[in-house]
Amino acid sequence: MLSLEQIEAARARLQGRLPRTPLVPSTTLGRRLGCRVSLKLECLQKTGSFKPRGAFNKMLALRDDERACGVVAVSGGNHAQGVAYAAQQLGISATICMPRTTPANYLDATRGYGADIVLTPDIRAAFAEADRLHSQGRILIHPFDDPLIAAGQGTVGLEIVEDAPDLTHLFVSIGGGGLLAGVGTAVKAHRPQVTLFGVETHGADAMAQSLAANALVELPAITSIARTLGAPRVCAFTLTMTRQLVREVIVVDDAEAVAAMVLLLERAKILTEPAAACCLAAAERKRREFQPTDHVVLLLCGGNIALSDVCAFRQQFAPVSG
Hints:
By secondary structure, the chain is of the alpha/beta class. The protein contains 14 helices and 10 strands. The chain has a 6-stranded mixed sheet, sandwiched between helices. Strands 5-4-3-6 form a 4-stranded parallel sheet. The longest helix has 17 residues, at 147-163. The chain is globular, with a radius of gyration of 18 Å.
């Protein structure tokens, strides 16, 4: 389904295109979890998330005649910016289909990278419009259902195992599952003993529900505030990869994700989305399993959140004092 060789080939393609993001220790989180803790700051990647890795890998693999057709993608935010940026750098026309509920900061950034945006009533309509434009000739850059996309995302995993050779536990967010498929493949190829956890939020938990049903489950609506985890369904590829790679998919509440987001901002000085901060929330749930000699890594996959949303979420989920 996906191999280390494909991920190594993706790293070669991406050479010089994107920066290597840092992996930094956190003493504060180490005290909270009772072990060594490091943060993989993919929220500092170009466009604010891991998404350009897969987008570049896919587009660099296209033939010249395919590039001339232009590309189309569907996204609630981060994939849009990743595709738009990669397309701009490679001189490829890009159209992004996005739901009308997409925050203005995502829309502005996507347009700023030169892409055209088609707004639709919801994410399902965005997928339908992207399929229509694909049928007219544009090349579809799927957010997760593509081994080339997952291989590009897997380059994050190569960096993690190089910078944390004693890694014991890794927490990775799941939207459609491409990031987890790529990162998990890279990490397990080098460190098969690592315990890998996937993380979702209630209301954006298509993977957890599909695993429980042993079948692909489509969510009737995305109700979580973690918009960038908001794939209404996963796919056979990522479902299979998740079954093979993870010990457990942990589903946390929005309130837990927001509390973790605030903690990361106040103590680690790192601004993340709830879709990334949920990894800390999941690790908090597992803290009793960690030993002092363990090395836990939290992959903070994105930081594209508006200040207004930070304030609104903090107020909405403020703990009630007694």
